[in-house]
Amino acid sequence: MEQFTKNVIDFATTYGGKIVLALVVLVVGYFVVKALNKAAGKAIDRTKLDETVKMLLKKLAKILLYVILIISVFEILGVSMSSVVAILASCGLAVGLALQGALSNLAGGLMILIFKPFKVGDYIEAAGTQGVVQDVSIFYTTLLTLDNKKVFVPNGDLMNATVTNYSAEKTRRVDLDFKITNDIDAELVKSVLLGAAGKTPGVLTDPEPFARLTAVDDDTYIFTVRAWCLGAQYWDVYFDLIEGCSKALADNGIDDPEERIAVRLVKEEDR
Question: Could you count the other beta carbons within 10 Å of the beta carbon of residue 107?
Fold first, then answer.
């Protein structure tokens, strides 16, 4: 018992001061890191960088500050950093294999920061999903889908996938196809579709709307309507254009071949 007490006293004498100092540094450092992180965040917000870059820089700054704090605590405790590095190096292969997915996502996050294929607020399609970019973290990118679901996509998957950015350009083109029976004057159909497109709210006049016969399928003509609009108005223009063109065709007695077949079937049943 005396030997145990002596060992405790020797340990406390040798390491007690270092442990107390390390705890004080850890507690005080925690609040200092929070304050510095807040100040760094404000400084980053004042820059002209886009929101994606700002968020990544904030997170990297936070991680760096905490790493510095932990290293400082180790130094106070007398832990040799060379020993820590040697241990990590000897376990490097195992750690690398275990963190392979995380490292891939980290590399993907850095590539997104460097090459900027999209930014916060863009509507993108990639890795089997699509939505508005809400957040780009070091490991994951958060998308908000049109039906209000959050999807967390690993950055590694994003960098290995084809990314379609629907918000990259100011304007977008709406493409619609309409089936028409082939006994209708093609010029009349073209004129009706162009008139309907021109009256659709949000359709731009430059470039002009397009309406032409683009394919023939048995007894069916296929007319294509193309109209440009601002990217933010795409879906409104898309649905308004469908309604406007369909109504204009009906008002001018221009049939959909499927509707004509349905009418014939009904008449045959009446007989």
Answer: 13
Fold of 2-90: Helix Hairpins (1.10.287)
pLDDT in tens, the chain (271 residues): 665 566 555 555 666 677 788 888 888 888 998 999 889 888 888 887 767 677 778 888 888 888 888 878 877 777 666 666 666 566 655 655 555 677 788 788 888 877 889 988 999 999 999 999 998 888 899 999 999 999 999 999 998 899 999 999 999 999 999 999 888 899 999 999 999 999 999 999 999 999 999 999 877 899 999 999 999 999 999 999 999 999 999 999 887 666 554 444 444 455 5
- Domain limits, CATH 3.30.70.100, in the chain: 171-262
Class of residue 244 by CB neighbours under 10 A (exposed 0-12, middle 13-18, buried 19+): buried
Q: Report the sign of the C-alpha dihedral through residues 182, 186, 191, 197, in that order.
A: positive
Whether the link from the prior residue into 154 is cis, omega within 30° of 0, is no
> Are 133 and 143 within 8 A, CB to CB?
yes
Q: How many CB atoms lie within 10 A of CB 55?
A: 20
In angstroms, how far is the first alpha carbon of the chain from the final one? 111
Closest CA to 176 of 150, 203, 147, 154: 203
Pick the CATH number of 171-262 from 3.40.50.1260, 1.10.3720.10, 1.10.760.10, 3.30.70.100: 3.30.70.100
- Residue whose entry in the numeric block shows the structure tokens 């294929």: 117
